[in-house]
Amino acid sequence: MGWLNEQVALVTGGTGGIGSAVVRRYVAEGAKVAVMARDATQLRQLEQELGDAVITVQGDVADYRDNQRAVAATLEAFGKLDTFVGNAAVFDYFTRLDRIAPEDFAGAFNKLFSINVQGYLLGAQAATAALRETSGSMIFTLSNSAFYAGGGGILYVTAKHALVGMIRQLAYELAPDIRVNGVAPGATNTPMKSLEGLNSRSVPLNQIPGFEAGAAQAVPLQRLAEPADHAGHYVLLASRENAGLTTANIIHSDGGWEIRSAGPSRPRSA
Ligand SMILES: NC(=O)c1ccc[n+]([C@@H]2O[C@H](COP(=O)([O-])OP(=O)(O)OC[C@H]3O[C@@H](n4cnc5c(N)ncnc54)[C@H](O)[C@@H]3O)[C@@H](O)[C@H]2O)c1
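That is the input. Now the predicted structure with nicotinamide-adenine-dinucleotide docked in place:
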């Protein structure tokens, strides 16, 4: 018996590093899972790996109709929805405000926020009616960047901070029917991509030279996370038996950012 026997989940960005670890763990815990993501080849690979336990939907989280299609496909395949996991996001390759040309700013802001923030809200909106039916829950992937500076650039960190407010307000609006929580991973070994065109040096996150060592040095637990390190938190929050009174909560899974020591001080710029 798994913790999620006979449960049904929908995971956005479920072909990616953290998303696919959540999908695999949900299936291992007895759930059926619908996976929404952009890349058709990766979706097919996941179907081949996990068989009847999953269905896949190709779509863009920034588009409400795609979110609606994903919820409809979940209900058609599995008959209900217990947990919506909003997880799809893009990075900004640590790009600072003073490195974004003013004429490029609105485009970059709108693109990143349309995926990382609007995508979560549209998924929540599309899933609400089905989750009310089951007294289900929503779980969103945040980040250490939802609480602290320096783990991303200005757009990514601002967007992740906004999601703390989103979780609280949604938990408030949807109680007592639907629980709303988050998981905040720290640096994780995934190929998370940056917004195209934002930074010419951009490479996938885990291909940044020195990424693993730098991430390990930054936190007291001294290691870079693997995606599977976070998956148990998503199981706990989805479980009515084990987290039935938990809402508006965000579990940190980041090696201890909150208790890291201050870095060396830097001279003021002239
Ligand atoms: N990797 C890290 O260090 C790290 C740290 C903290 C938080 N996170 C968060 O974890 C989550 C997952 O990121 P990851 O590291 O697994 O990255 P990833 O690039 O491996 O996975 C991202 C997934 O989102 C999908 N996606 C991207 N844009 C989409 C769109 N518009 N519509 C539909 N799907 C889309 C991709 O297809 C992929 O499946 C994100 O919310 C990210 O901010 C990552």
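The domain at 8-253 is CATH 3.40.50.720 (Rossmann fold).
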